[in-house]
Amino acid sequence: MKQRVITNQRKRTGRTFLFLSMLTVIGLFRINAQASVSGGLKMEANIHLFWLYDMDGYVSSMKAAPNLGGFLDIELTDEFAIQPEAMFFFRNSGLRYGGRDDNFQQWGMSFPVYLVRREYMDGGIWYFGLGAYTGFGFNARIKNTKTALYAKTDGHALMNRWDYGICAMLGYEFGKGIQINAGLQLGLKDQLDAGKDNASVINRIITVGMGYRF
Fold first, then answer.
1. 167/133 Cα distance (integer angstroms)
2. Is 196 exposed, middle or buried (0-12, 13-18, 19+ CB in 10 A)?
């Protein structure tokens, strides 16, 4: 019961944070409607696992898979920018249950929005971003058993398609627009659909990659 109360509080906090973050992004953009806009491409490795609550006998472990997508850089001032992104992802994490090893696999898209702080030094740009993201899964399965996690039975699937949470990134841009970066996404939405009243499954994702800003 205590764990369920904590989970519900986390969900309410997540919704509030996401709503306030989006209002902040909209407000900042309206302040500078003539902002300079550039764009670019990103290619990353995502390292994914689940935080499992009240799921005795289940263990999630990190594995790497690719992200690919693009971003916009909406300049507010020389030091601050808004960076919305659209990233296609494939996630592949280990899952152990009942003494067996398997893999969770998911295809989908993630849409982070960052408020970015820049620092010009060493002939390039250091940047740090904080924000919120939402995501949507196209397909998800347990590999070896071929369990389709979005297939509905009696109106409920094992897993829901939507996710949202908070995110952060740190990167460096070299003089010709080439970037290296690392990021973190902390999910706030329970990924379970059927069974969500008795347990929780929360996304945790680390990214490492490179990009190019045009």
1. 7
2. middle
The contacts of residue 61 (CB under 8 Å, 6+ apart) are: 49, 93, 94, 95, 96
Residue pLDDT, tens place only, 165-198 = 999 999 999 988 999 999 999 999 999 998 888 8
d(CA 203, CA 17): 17
Confidence check: pLDDT of 43 > 60 = yes
The helix (run of H) or strand (run of E) holding residue 89 is strand 80-97
Structure tokens at 180: 């290296």
Three-state DSSP string of 121-185: ECCEEEEEEEEEEEEEEEEEEECCCCEECCCEECCEECECCEEEEEEEEEEEECCCCEEEEEEEE
Does the structure show a pLDDT above 60 at 4?
no
Cα 93 to chain center, whole Å? 15
Long-range contacts (CB closer than 8 Å, 24 or more residues apart) made by 145-148 = 145/102
Q: What whole-number distance in Å separates Cα of residue 170 and Cα of residue 207?
A: 10
Round to whole Å and give the CA distance between 166 and 164: 7
Q: Mean of the per-residue pLDDT values for the chain?
A: 89
Taking the model in full, what pTM does it have?
0.83
pLDDT digits (tens, 9 = 90+) for 60-104: 999 999 999 999 999 999 999 999 999 999 999 999 998 899 999
- Alpha-carbon distance of 84 to 99, in angstroms, equals 42
